[in-house]
Automatic annotation (TrEMBL):
Family as reported in the entry's similarity comment: Belongs to the peptidase M14 family.
SMART domains documented for this protein: Zn_pept (SM00631)
Residues annotated as catalytic: E323
UniProt-recorded Gene Ontology molecular function terms: metallocarboxypeptidase activity; zinc ion binding
Entry GO CC: extracellular space
Alphabetically ordered keywords of this record: Carboxypeptidase, Hydrolase, Metal-binding, Metalloprotease, Protease, Signal, Zinc
Protein name: Carboxypeptidase B-like
């Protein structure tokens, strides 16, 4: 537990015969104990079946090849609005793809003085292999952006990487459902790097590990991994236009703000907090689901080498990460029959984010570092 440097909840799985004893020992050591799930095996048994009758993204999680087919089909339907770009390959040669969606500047925006360069929002998901809901959420956002061209979210250009970690994602489908890292080889008996500890911001710092067997192993050097280099290079291509960044993760129902690696206050924290709270309110309007808005270091857990902090360190006005549903009852094993509710309500928050980025961009109301 100390490796994560967290003061928040920590989940521990124990075998049924020792469950009562484990709870008692924890209570004796002044831990507050709550049983989140009585039967973890039952949660695994609810995992997707290979005999699924539907491929709808609101009703089923998609395997890697299905994700790629989904993106290709949308481009065929909307060739003038979107394209898929390969931004890199994994160590195993698996392509990493990004969807680019053009903005639809409204006449009102043009009259308000918007220039010819649209602000860009960069969004990624699937950094951690087991966080399938993050992939579904970004795919749903892509679908809504293309099928609802009048959405206020179309006032910006989108760069979306639905599966940052395709090898790890495939591995979580085929071998180990709870796999987190990429599939980097050559590290003794342990494989993989935590990609969200591999960015060049306070690398080797708090909330990361030098141990290759750790789930938060940071890797041998900043940007040592082809996946993080792919995101870096795709981001830097449009760096001057990027005004907002969202990284989707799961779970906890939290909108996290920089910094993750230090207690210092980000110069744009007030503005980012206001935007985050607006997102949380928009999400809540859908079904009443509550998302908290946290300064990550102080209120969630410290972490170094994260994409959110790296983007913020480059001066992007709004950089945040969303820990999606739920609060632990299902956790990473989120059930397919709840996907629709989850993605539709978070979409409302993403839509609000983009609309606010567009508004602040028109008014040049960003607080820069």
């Amino acid at each position: 537990m100390s490796e994560y440097n967290t003061n928040g909840p920590v989940e521990v799985a124990v075998a049924p015969p020792i469950s009562r004893d484990a709870q008692e020992k924890l209570r004796q050591n002044d831990f507050n104990v709550t049983v989140v799930a009585q039967d973890v095996e039952q949660l695994f048994s609810a995992s997707p079946s290979i005999f699924r009758q539907t491929k709808k993204i609101t009703d089923a999680f998609l395997e890697l090849r299905e994700v790629e087919n989904f993106l290709d089909e949308l481009v065929v339907k909307h060739p003038d609005q979107a394209r898929v770009k390969q931004i890199g390959k994994t160590e195993n040669g698996t392509p990493i793809h990004m969807m680019i969606i053009k903005s639809q500047i409204s006449p009102a925006a043009s009259l308000a003085g918007a220039n010819n360069v649209s602000p860009v929002v960069f969004l990624d998901s699937g950094t951690h292999a087991r966080e399938w809901l993050s992939v579904s959420t970004s795919l749903y956002a892509i679908q809504q952006l293309l099928e609802q061209p009048s959405s206020p979210a179309r006032q910006v250009e989108w760069r979306i990487v639905p599966v940052v970690n395709p090898d790890g994602y495939a591995y979580s489908w085929n071998t180990n459902r709870l796999w987190r890292k990429n599939r980097k080889s050559g590290i003794g008996r342990c494989q993989g790097v935590d990609l969200n500890r591999n960015y060049d911001v306070n690398f080797e710092g708090i909330g990361s590990s030098r141990r290759p067997c750790s789930d938060i192993f940071r890797g041998p050097a900043a940007f040592s991994e082809p996946e993080t280099r792919a995101v870096r290079d795709a981001f830097l291509e449009v760096r001057s236009e990027v005004k907002g960044y969202i990284s989707l993760h799961s779970y906890s129902q939290v909108i996290m703000l920089p910094w993750s690696y230090q207690p210092d206050v980000h110069p744009n924290l007030k503005n980012m907090t206001d935007l985050g709270e607006g997102m949380a309110k928009a999400i809540s309007k859908a079904r009443g689901t509550k998302f908290d808005v946290f300064n990550t270091y102080k209120s969630f857990y410290p972490a170094s080498g994260t994409s959110m902090d790296w983007v913020a360190s480059l001066g992007v006005p709004h950089s945040l990460a969303i820990e999606l549903q739920d609060k632990g009852h299902h956790g990473f094993l989120y059930p397919e029959n709840k996907i629709r509710d989850a993605v539709t309500e978070v979409w409302k928050g993403i839509e609000f984010f983009a609309e606010e980025i567009a508004r602040q961009s028109r008014q040049e109301n960003f607080t820069q570092q």
